[in-house]
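Technical annex, item 7. During the second reporting period the consortium partners agreed on a shared format for inverse folding records so that results from different sites could be compared directly. Each record opens with the tokenized structure and is followed by the designed sequence. A conforming record, contributed by the partner at site C, is shown below for reference.
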């Protein structure tokens, strides 16, 4: 074990303790400089990302009112926020029609509430189904991406809206 002063990818330096073989330590130091930001920058970015999420979700009309402990509510908001943000961020990445991704988000929410039967009033219900929620968000994004490529935006959106209507009567 030894202490090293390393420079992170954000340009900040810090003293870290490293273990193991010398070659592994050097590899780790290079990795810090290449792709790891310092702790302060990581924490700041987490706060910035959360603010960004809240702004986008509020703008899109998604507001959650979970019951639970303060910790449970914050965790449930993160889970649902990330799942939805991943959908909306896809619209920004490729110059896709954002209405199309609104349709994708509506479908995702219908699946979460009607198929997974998650109680949107309960933080615990969301936390207990974290893995399924993430999987459904990813699946909805993949399906929408493929549909846009093969059918075009308007047709993809129509197909998603039809599926949402089917799920909503469950
Ligand atoms: Zn930094």
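Designed sequence (site C submission):
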């Amino acid at each position: 074990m030894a202490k090293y002063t390393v420079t992170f990818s954000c340009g900040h330096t810090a003293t870290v303790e490293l273990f193991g073989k010398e070659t592994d330590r050097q590899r780790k130091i290079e990795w810090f400089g290449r792709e790891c930001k310092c702790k302060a920058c990581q924490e700041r970015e987490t706060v910035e990302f959360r603010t960004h999420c809240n702004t986008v979700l509020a703008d899109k009309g998604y507001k959650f009112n979970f019951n639970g402990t303060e910790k449970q509510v914050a965790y449930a908001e993160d889970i649902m926020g990330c799942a939805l943000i991943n959908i909306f961020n896809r619209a920004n990445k490729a110059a896709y029609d954002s209405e199309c991704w609104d349709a994708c988000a509506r479908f995702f929410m219908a699946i979460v509430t009607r198929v997974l039967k998650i109680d949107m009033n309960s933080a615990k219900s969301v936390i207990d189904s974290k893995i399924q929620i993430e999987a459904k968000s990813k699946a909805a994004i993949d399906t929408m991406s493929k549909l846009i490529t093969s059918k075009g935006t308007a047709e993809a959106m129509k197909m998603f809206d039809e599926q949402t209507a089917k799920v909503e009567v469950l």
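Residues 70-93 form the longest helix (24 residues). The mean pLDDT is 92. All partners now use this format for quarterly exchanges.
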